[in-house]
Specification:
The chain has 230 residues and is mainly β. Strands 1, 2, 3, 5, 7, 8, 9, 10 and 11 form a 9-stranded parallel beta sheet that branches. A two-stranded parallel sheet has the order 4-6. A two-stranded parallel sheet has the order 12-13.
Length: 230
């Protein structure tokens, strides 16, 4: 039996997101119209349920959204730079090619959401959960990611270079062509993930301290020129 009493991965489990969303919410059909008409242009929205909203290339920069739900919305190519989302549950939303650079997410949950090509450069994600979603071709370069849990999600060809990861859990995550250049994966368990053609520095120091299964480790060894005996 394997002794896990001193297993460093046991102490790397993220804290749960648990967004604090009240039971009674104001129904918002259009986030843009709500900000302009109901809030007199003030980009602060709380205790709202935004459902079925659609916008393309809209400006939501500096938006503050808290204790709310966003369901079945489509915001493509929109500007969400420097937004602050706290205690928000997102489900069935499409944020493809939107810009979340320098955004702040705290206690947020994403279910079946699409972030294809989205930009999270220098964003901060704390106590965030994502499942059944896609971040293919997204950029999380230089992002700060703490207490984050990701399950059944596609990170194919995403850029996670020079990011800071702390207490991050990946389960059934697809990393194909994903860049972890200069991002330490120490303390992260990758055994339940798909790894293929990930981008690393020449010395592959990014992998120091992470956990892989034998098949994954053999693939990395082959990249180093090691011949695996049958």
């Amino acid at each position: 039996m394997q002794d896990r009493s001193h297993d460093p991965f046991q102490h790397a489990r993220p804290q749960p997101a648990n967004p604090a969303v009240p039971g009674e919410l104001v129904e918002v059909a259009s986030l843009t119209a709500w900000i302009e008409r109901e809030n007199d242009g003030d980009p602060f929205v709380a205790h709202a349920r935004v459902a079925g909203d659609e916008a393309a290339r809209a400006d939501f920069a500096l938006l503050e959204l808290s204790e709310s739900r966003v369901e079945g919305c489509r915001y493509t190519g929109c500007d969400f730079t420097r937004v602050a989302f706290s205690d928000v549950a997102f489900s069935g939303c499409d944020f493809s090619n939107s810009d979340f650079s320098e955004a702040n997410f705290t206690r947020c949950a994403f279910a079946s959401c699409k972030f294809t090509g989205a930009n999270f450069t220098e964003a901060v994600l704390r106590r965030v959960e994502a499942r059944d979603s896609t971040l293919a071709y997204a950029s999380l370069a230089k992002a700060k990611i703490e207490d984050v849990s990701v399950r059944a999600t596609d990170f194919s060809h995403a850029d996670v270079s020079e990011a800071r990861l702390k207490r991050v859990a990946f389960d059934d995550v697809r990393f194909v062509g994903t860049s972890f250049f200069r991002t330490s994966l120490s303390g992260i368990d990758l055994t339940a993930c798909q790894l293929a053609d990930i981008v690393l520095s020449d010395g592959m120091g990014e992998l120091r301290g992470c956990r892989m299964d034998l098949y994954q480790a053999a693939g990395i060894a082959q990249r180093l020129g090691v011949v695996i005996a049958d």
